[in-house]
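B., you asked whether I could sanity-check this one before it goes into the benchmark set. Here's the sequence:
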Amino acid sequence: MDLIKTIEQLIQFRTETGNTIEIDKCLDYAKNLFDGTEAKVDICRFDNASPVLFVRNIDTDDYDVVCLGHLDVVPADEKMFHPYIENGKMFGRGTLDMKSFAAVAFNSMFHVLQNKLPIKFAVILSTDEEKGSASTHAFMNAHPNLKSKIVLDNDVGGDILKLVTKCKNPVFVKIISEGKEAHGSTPWEGIDANEKLMQVWQNIRKIYPYYSKELPQPKDTWFDTVHFAKIEGGQVSNVISNHAVALLDFRLTENSSVENLKKNLDKCMESGVTYKIVSDSTPVVMDEANPYILDYKQFAEDILGKKIEFEHIGGATDSRSFAIRGSIVIMHSGTGEGMHANGEYVEVDSVKQIAEIQTRFLDKLAKDLNK
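And here's what the prediction gave me:
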């Protein structure tokens, strides 16, 4: 398999989340890559979620290694779906997040097949990760006994010199404020839902402070945060709003809990204002002394000729679906910038290095598991 050519081909599919035609074309392309091999390939479809690509060398519910990721991307201009390489960097939508590493996963599968490695190996790629990962949840629900000793997750970070060992728990909360309409000239005759919402907002900020690039940066960022993702209230300028809603994005460390968050929110509510937990998950926290993680780290350092640092990030990862089933999750990505932005790129050498790290890790794992 030509790794770089495969990445370029994948990027040309405009797989923005929800673009079913392009997603299906991309899935067909990926499936056809394994024609003539012993790989078992399914495009798993669901009633209420987008498809998932499931490639494996054996049918089982108990894998040694799973490569987990996604093929969908965030929206971009047409030009970003025409990748190009300049000064060692490949530019285009999905170069960093994360079609380059979907191709790395395919490369690892070919390595396992061609070398007949005695390990149970699979690649699972969702197609709606950028909007909540309903397809990953549907896939895992359809395979309730599926597990893997190790999960290789390349959908993190953007620095090959960082190995992620902690991800926070994303918790989305809706704040609902109810008021009473009145003419804007007689506010004493109404109850302003917008005002009530802002009072709650201020209460929340007393517990979860505001951070910004314009403010001094915290030295240690491993604490709970929240940002107000969406705010809606009022219809016309001269009417007191009778309804307002805000969507909040909390990121909780493993030292927190949803129950504790609820207790804090209870303290923040005002009359006429309620809240609802829209979704929550679990933080992914790995033991930095785990022997498999240390083996992987050593291979990375040998190949890169540099030390690898452990890192904690606030972003979520689909590998939490496996972490709660007991998997050891190894979170490592190539180097690049511009994720979800114009000018997204990945350093080509870093992609090749991730591919080499994975194959060497798989070689050693196959030997260790079959001693």
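One thing to flag: The chain has a mean pLDDT of 96. Otherwise nothing jumped out at me.
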